[in-house]
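Recall that a protein's primary structure is simply its ordered list of amino acids. Everything else, from secondary elements to tertiary packing, is in principle encoded there. The following example makes that idea concrete.
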Amino acid sequence: MNFKKALLILCFLLANVLYAGSEKKTIAYVVSDISIPFWDIMSKGMKNKTDSYGYDYKIYSSENIAKKELEATIAAIKDKVAGIVVSPTNSSACVTILKLAKRANIPVVIADIGTDGGEYVSYISSNNKNGAYNIGKVLAQKMIKKNWQDGKVGIIAIPQKRLNGQERTAGFMKALDEHGIKGADIKQLVTWTKEETYHYAKDMIQKYPNLRAIWLQTSDKYKDAIKAINDLNKQDEVILLSFDAEPEFLELIPKGTILASAMQQPYLMGQEAVHAMHKHLQGQTVEQSIQLPILIISNDNIKEELNNINLNVLGIEK
């Protein structure tokens, strides 16, 4: 082999190495349903961080269907992504996702929901139990002020198979128990439709004459709970609270239509998830559990927390 030919081969090999090294790595987001505002806002936070770190970013949504979630995970693995951030449909389903990713040697960061087992880089969550406990205290104090201590409270819950759902219920009920207030009923969302929330709220009001409050463990179905309360003319008798937030809450809380909401910070959670993945891919140590605080927002503090709510809760980027 002459010198020129050897030099050409060396240059070709070097070019291939440089090209391979310059290819962007992809961070995948396997999410239960990106059409739900909470996950969409979390995704915006992820996109903000993947852009700043120089990664490509791809969303794999499963429309809250277990089979599609499995297909989405397999698709992400086939696409040879560098890492997966997952917000699973439930904690048990997450175990399967983690097993598949482990076989493919792809690291996983869990963003909210949680898992019943398996190996992962980090679990980014909100302090659901503490947030629910604090919103429960706000309600209890309001009921005591109104002399409604004998009234009962209904819960329209996210699935209790989810770790975060279990924590929300436990924290909220602890606050009620401490103030001697009884729960009326708990209904779990199954279809996540407007009709489901409306009928749950209406049935609770009709079944329990002394119902004084309904707590939604999510935010996007708030209109249907309000409609049920209004249709039964219970605006002055039944308090509505929420978990998380919608843009309309900035008006509904000051008006008193919604007493208060325990607001997670999904945009910040998304940023933290990608930050944890980036650190791992860089060979740095990552905390396995990172909990972010939940904002308890009522008419007492909504003005002073407005900037934080707009970005970290609602994902409004300036």
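Residues 23-125+266-292 form a domain with the Rossmann fold fold (CATH 3.40.50.2300). The first helix runs from residue 3 to 22.
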